[in-house]
Each structure stands twice: as structure tokens, then as C-alpha cells.
Amino acid sequence: MTNSMLRKMRPTFIYALLGIIFMLAAPSVLQLFTIINLTTAIALSVLALSLALIWGYGGILCFGQVAFFGLGAYVYTISAINFGGSTWAILVAIIVTSAFASALGYFIFYGRVSDVYLGVITLTVTLIFFSLIRRTSGPEYKIGNALLGGFNGVSSPPINLPWNSASFLFPEQVFYVAMAALIICYVFVGWLVNTKFGRVCVAIRENELRAELLGYDIRAYKLGIFTIGAGIAAVGGVLFCNGVGRITPDIFNLYNAALTIIWVIVGGRGTLIGPIGATFALFYVTSALGGQSVFNNNLVLGIILIIFVLLVPKGVAPTIIGWASARQKKSQRRVRRRRRAEGTR
Amino acid sequence: MKRKRGDVVVETRELCMHFGGVRAVEQVDFTLYDRELRCLIGPNGAGKSTFFKCLTGQLVPTSGEVLIRGHEMTGAEPFEIASLGVGIKTQVPNVFDGLTAEENIWLSARRWHGEARARALTAETIDRLDLGDIRRTLVGRLAHGQRQWVELGMVVAAEPWLVLLDEPAAGMTHEETYRTAQLIEEINKTSALIVVEHDMQFIRMISRQVTLFNEGGILMEDTMDAISADERAREVYLGHRS
Hints:
The complex is a heterodimer of chains A (345) and B (242).
Chain A: H1 3-8, H2 10-29, H3 32-57, H4 65-83, H5 87-110, H6 115-134, E1 142-143, E2 146-147, E3 154-155, E4 160-161, E5 164-168, H7 171-192, H8 196-206, H9 208-213, H10 218-244, E6 246-247, H11 254-267, H12 273-290, H13 297-311, H14 316-344
Antiparallel strand pairs in A: 1-2, 3-6, 4-5
Helix pairs in contact in A: 2-7, 3-7, 3-10, 3-11, 3-12, 4-5, 4-6, 4-10, 5-10, 7-10, 8-10, 11-12
Chain B: E1 8-19, E2 22-33, E3 37-41, H1 48-55, E4 63-68, E5 71-72, H2 78-82, E6 86-89, H3 101-110, H4 115-128, H5 144-157, E7 162-166, H6 174-188, E8 192-196, H7 200-206, E9 209-214, E10 217-223, H8 224-229, H9 231-236
Parallel strand pairs in B: 3-8, 3-9, 6-7, 7-8
Antiparallel strand pairs in B: 1-2, 1-4, 4-5, 9-10
Helix pairs in contact in B: 3-4, 3-5, 4-5
């Protein structure tokens, strides 16, 4: 890594460090119930991170990012049951999901399907998964030893120590794994968007024709970032079914597909920490709302989304960054003016 | 009459581009030699821009062939044509609005070079085009003429051997137009150019050989002076100028 790369990644490292401190401190401060809940929130924020990458940086509005999340969870669960351990199951989940995304993306990007239809196609794929897996409740629907279980889903074997399928991790340890995975994915994406590949993806987001006229094969770049995003979503899926303990077809429903988009809109496109933070915040808002019965949950979420789209259209993180840099410029100008004033005296 | 300076770099054979019943480009045979500077002129709807888009891969011709340095490029993707080392500037400024001027140019240089060389080339281009003051400004915030210059900077930073410019002086002030003409002269020292342009004064500043389009075909190819003097040319184009 060059010096300039390290400089660009400084904020990423700062947030990663805060994450590590949180990871180490949380289990001794928080109750086990909260820790288990947090694991689910972490899994969802990995999903948000994957959409922040492909939408915020790649300009690809994938309405079905949750399809890759759910696929990752299902592939993990089925392989873990069949292999009798999680080590290879995690790898298989990431590889199968990425391969599926790259096959789907190949037709979308090399077929030059426009942005609107990309959203429609990805959402449709998600809903197809939803309908298909819901109908697999009979004993005839099984992959190896794993019953798909239809509407009730499958219970997911917990993660174990690498190559030691007897040593399951306890919920607290799963929290460490989830947090570490989130931090690793975050630093990886933070690095990726500053590489040549990442900068070209941003350029494609800004102007496809210009990127192409510079000699970049935009189809290959889009396919690349789409596939990587799907792989990260699969990591989230693996964490999710570990946090919850089972995976059901409900993961593929319209509500979850929309929720992913909301996290990124609220957190802010073009940042990574924004969508992660927004996921945690909205996760806790929904949990808190679940504990009361005065307001309808979805109504409140809908109102939050409308407020953000109208008042903070860029999202929270870019708005804060905008304020901060405006203040910094202002104070710099003030310093310069003062210096000039002193010089004339 | 033709001033041969070397090998053929761009050739079209019986190139046609039809939109339904409209024959925007009809049977065009065109040849450009290495290090040549050629202007394409013609009245509105003469087919210059459509011809340009066929050369750059933005349109797939109905029939005929496009050869660039002997490579058959008919119907190739724009990135494939650019990957031959062709620098292209479109009519509407196509820039990366959300990125800084510096990054716009870097993205062009980085396509061809490694990290260090790309950075050096970017700095060089910024100096050469005098973009130092706006290097850290988002291109979306710049004035029209400056955006045009950033786009020219992107073309130059790729060090192309063939440059295709569609109306480079459009919307520029007189001063900017003059500087653009100078830049084109400078680019021409190392590369061949095709310039589509409306602005007659600009063409007089840079012109060597001019191709006059009319009704989808090439009406004549000659120097600007000869075209100005020609009856037919005056009728289709210059006569309508006022």
C-alpha cells in the first residue's frame, strides 16, 4: 500500500478502530440478550455495506441485494448440515452466491439492460426465491441431508472453530466473529473504493459514456463490483442465520428488499460508515417500536424514510461531512483573513 | 491535391447510417492519413455528427466498414475503439461531474499507465492546459468552457495517436476558442485529428484540409480557401451563414 492510499484510508481505519474497541468492550458491558440482538444488527449492516458499495460507489441500484443475503444464508445452512461443520460451508456460501450474482450480472450488464430494468430484474429474482422456497415444505424437498422446510425454514448450525466441528461457538463468541467480519468487510470495501478498480467504478457511476470513451470496458467493471457486492452480502447472510439460529423464506420478502435501500438512503450514498450506522439505528428503532402497540411499525419507518428523502436527501453521513468541511473552510478563511489583517498592521 | 503524410489511419468504405427512412450518412468513403488535421463541416443535418458517432462506436452503422489503422472496427464498442489509443471528445461535454478536475484527468492517464507515471502525466497535463486553479474543484461546479477544457485534458492525458473532436469550441468565449485552436495545433504535432466544427472562424484558425458534408454525403474535400471560393459549397453552407 502506498502512502497516498494510507492517507485516503485514514477515516476508514479510525472507524475500524472504534469498531474494534466496541467489539472488545460490548460483551462486558451489555447483557447477553442485547449481544445476540446486536449480532443480527451486525449481519444486516454487512448487507447495507454491500449495497453501499454497489449503489453508492458503483451506481448500480440493485433492488434485490437481499436475494444474495438470503441465498448466502441458505447455502451456508444447507452446506453446514451436509458437511457437518461450518468451515467449508462459509466458503461455499460466499462462492455460490458470487457465482450466481456473476451469472445474473453477466446477462444484465453485457445485455446492456438499463438501470430501471436492473432494479426490476433484481427485485423479481428476490421474489422468485421467496415463492420458490415457500413451496418446499414437503419431505421430498431436500438437498443432501437438509430439508428445506418451506415456510418454516431450516435451523442453521452455529459456526464452529475452523476444522473442528465439535466446538460450536457460543452466542457471545458469534458476536465477536460477526463484529470482526463486519470490520474486515468494511476495511476491505474502504480499500477497494480507493483502488484503480474502485475509482473507475465511481467514474462509471458519474458518466458511463465518458468512462467508455476513455477505454474502460464498463460492462466488466460493473459485473466485477456487482459480484463482489453479492459476496459481501453472502457474508452478511451467514452471520444473520447464525444470529437468528434459522433461516426462513421471509428473508426474501419485499419488506426486507425495501429496507436495505432505506438503510443506504438514510445513511447516505457515497459513504460506507453511513449505511452501517443507519442500519444499527433503524434496527433499534424497529425493535423499540416492536415493544409498543400504539403506532404501526411500518408506518413509522415510512415516515422516517419520507422525512429523510425530503429533508436530508443526501443521507446523514454526507450531510455531516458537508457541514464539517464547510466549517473547516470557514475557519481556514477566518485564519487567513486574520493573518492578512495582521500583516497590514 | 491530397497531402500524404504517411499511412492511412482512418478509412471508411461505403459507410451508411440510416434511421428508418432517413439516410443520415450515405455511402461515405473517407480517408485520413497519419498526422493529418482534418475538419468536417457542413450545414445542420448534413451527417457530420452521425458520421462521427459511427467512427467512435456510439452508433452501429447500417452498412459499410470503418477501419482504424487497418483494424476492422465497424460496430465496435466505444471502449474498444478508445483502447486502440484514440482520444475522443463528444459534442455535449462528457465529464465526471462528481469528481475533481484532477481525478477526471487521472482516470484518463491511469487507463494507459501505472500509478507513478499516471500521476506525473496528470500533473503535466494540468500544467499544460493551465488548470492548476481548478484542479481540486468538482467538475460539476465549473463553467461550460472550463468543463470543455477538462474534457480536452482527459483526451490529451491519454497521449492518443488519433484524436476525434466533436465541436470542441462550442460555447467557448473568443479567448478560450483561440487557446483551443493553439492546443489543437500542438496535439497535431504528435497525432492525427478529425475535428467536427460549426464555428467558421475557428476552422480558419486551424484548418488544413476540410471535408464538406451535405445531405449525408461528402460534397467536397479541399482547403478552406478553395471551399470558400466554390460555388456549390457557398450554396449549401456558406451562403446560409447569415
